[in-house]
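Per reviewer request, we include the raw input and output of the structure prediction for the construct analysed in the revised manuscript.
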Amino acid sequence: MTKQELLQKADSLPLSPGVYIMMDKTGLVIYVGKAKKLKNRVSQYFQSGSGHNEKTRMMVSQVDHFDTIMVRTEFEALILENSLIKRHQPRYNILLKDDKGYPFVRLNEKAPYPRFTLVNKPEEDGARYFGPFGGRHETRAALQAVCAALKLPTCNRQFPRDIGKERPCLNHHIGKCDGFCSPDGPGQGEYQARMAQAAELLGGKLRQVTAALRQEMEQAAENLEFEKAAALRDRESLQILVRLFDRLALALVTDDRAHGDLKPENIIVGDDGTLCPIDFDASYLPAFAGEISPELGTAAYPHPARTAADFDERIDDYPAALISTALHALAEDPTLWDRYGSSDGLLYTPQRIASDPAYRETLALFEKRGMAVQYRIAQLLTAPTLRLFGLAELLAEAVREKPAARSGTEAETPELFVENGRWGYRTAERVVVAPLYDNGFDFTEGLAAVQLGGTWHYIDTAGRTRLSCPGCAAVKPFRGGKAQVVRNGERQEIAHPLKTPRYQ
């Protein structure tokens, strides 16, 4: 295309957010950019007298044609741009390029807050180098494990620049990082001491570091320094955190987008007390349909069967369920962290979840406490597919505000509970429906959906079956006199049996 044709095409673009992809005559992607208003931004490249710098003029001279992708928001455009740059490695995008080869780990010990970085080869620059290592992914995993063991930050914040700018991420709130980004966190001296221990670990001096850590722990015990332990065991704070996360998880699993690398490190606590996901490099957008996932994230969180080909709006289901389950378990029994806490994950190992002792203890804990919703979410972690059917409904139930107990002659609505792996219903005073069922939902509009022997039924508060749904693979609670069921692979809508003729 000529420059005039390129300009005409650019002038025909809408004034909406999107990403533009510049290509040369061979079809090679040479530049990727984003714009709040595509028409205005792309047109600027091909207008005379635009005052571009030398690099931009050189890029424009090589453009033969371009494509655009429309998105809903400027934020989505940013995520898409990031992903496309990493995928195509355009020569004129100098940022966001990953180096290849066998990496070394670099540590500038003279910096006020030294950090580990991956480089291709050592330089004579006075820094300390470790390696070479076999692969970048494995090296990053090793660095994360070392930092997590010493409760050092693994986020992208820069110190001292970012101290106090944002609240600590979720890693701090669950005890995986000591919150060096907080003005009230450990100081520079403590940071440097722990980085020195991390460097010794990378250098192979495991025994010396372990001995030093044990001595520090014993000294802390002698001095009765239990504040940190008390914070980790603050059940009330953990329960608040759990509710916040369940709300975030519900928003993620009901969206047509996905974060793609959901883990505590990528969640911060906002100034308003809400949880805010960060680091969207692996995000899925509808515009990515049919593409390959740019990364799979930390192995301790995604579904164990996930591959790069699994890239859709469902990839957040498993990590959302896993984190929710772990946080609920820790809120009930914080000592689980002492026994099962992991340097690279939370409590569980997805690759062996069915036999994981922490997982089995969690199920027993939920059963003992009658936590039916959490028990069912935990059960989803053994699902063979990435889509966790029913997760959204369970999370919605978890965040639903329970109605206050009613006075007078009105009966209290029974709540779901679990005992010996079976579901029943009870009030604060007594068991109303004995735990007989394989699955169950809370009461809505006077009925509750329960499963017995592979068949779903709707029962009333006295335990009487009011509607049976043979052949239904799944059902939902009644809302507004209607309920959705999946029967013979098709989604159908049924009416409330106490208000209309029975389901046929």
